[in-house]
Amino acid sequence: MEFSGRTWRPPYERDTPIIEATTGCAWGTCSFCSLYEEEHFSVGSLERFERELDEVKACIPNTRRLWLTGGSPFQMSFEQLEARANAVRDRLIKCQSIAMFASVRDIARKTDGELRRLRALQVNGLTIGVESGNDEALALARKGYTARDVIEQLTRLDCAGIEYNVTYVTGLLGAGRGRWHAHTTADVLNRLNPKIIAVSSLTAFPGTKLYEEVRSGSFTMPDEAERLEELKTFLSEIQLRVHLEASSKSNAVPVMGMLPLDKALIIAKLEAAIEEERRTNPNRHFRAELSSLGWDKERSEDLSSKSARSRLTYASLKGPRRDENQPTLKALPL
């Protein structure tokens, strides 16, 4: 099995077998992201996809879920997605869902009929980088859509029966505006039906537009106490039955649980952490010491010299955990 691009997936997909469908990110302009800065977006050939499916079939014929790698596999045309879904159906007869990253823009390019057809072919469990429900924050992040677009396009997924997870980034509106960001984002998500809300916290990594904005003084990052206050406000206002996953490396105080069942316990933990932050500021160096999720220059040159391609046996099919063997880049201090 071969991977010519960055292999990346959400932590809740860590046990799902993976196959490369695309490389890079088709959008590539988000202000805070440098994850795919070394890669141009491309779609892998159907022939290669089928060969690697044959390998999965030979090793784990009872696979029930498959993750297609790449920054935005749902960017593929309906015809490309349909062909790959049919290839999965022909080989992995017990596979019940084909999951991948998607953007609000990708959904908008599919008709209602195409979405329903993809769902019938087991395309399900999309992870969508929504990030925010606030128009100003979405513009600052250069996401290329509005809160209204989020509601319209994810409602279309609901109507097609396609399940999805969403991401939310605390701190995206900057210092002093965390509670408003939480309120507006909760208001948008309360109109939708995500299965998982994955929360990360804004970090200024070298090589991103955000990093330069912070250095120039045009954007002020919130401190850790405000980030926790924002998450607390968001949890107080969210009215969904949903799994919360706020345990990524960017969260100074990781929390997770089922809502509303665990809401009171999570809020209590956040309140204690907020009090501690204001009293002793234990995480004052946390963000400056946070490693980037992208490749550094040395790693990129090493990959380039090897044609950015590695041959994998099935023993490594499920791929490394998110934090494994990642190079370190220092984030910009607050």
- Round the mean pLDDT to the nearest integer and report it: 86
CATH topology title: pyruvate-formate lyase- activating enzyme
Structural class: alpha/beta
The largest sheet has its strands arranged as 2-5-6-7-8-9-10-11
Encode the helix/strand succession as letters. EEEEHEHEHHEHHEHEHHEEHHE
User: Could you list the spans in which at least 5 consecutive residues all have pLDDT below 50?
Assistant: 294-334
CATH architecture grouping: Alpha-Beta Horseshoe
Rounded to the nearest angstrom, the distance between the terminal CA atoms is: 42 Å
What would the principal axes of the Cα set say about the shape?
Answer: globular
Quaternary structure of the protein = single chain
Number of strands: 12
CATH superfamily: tm_1862 like domain
Can you count the helices?
11
Tell me the name of the CATH class. Alpha Beta
Radius of gyration, rounded? 20 Å
- Tell me the helix content: 25-40%
Largest sheet: 8 strands, mixed
Count of folded domains? 1
Percentage of residues in DSSP E strands: 15-25%
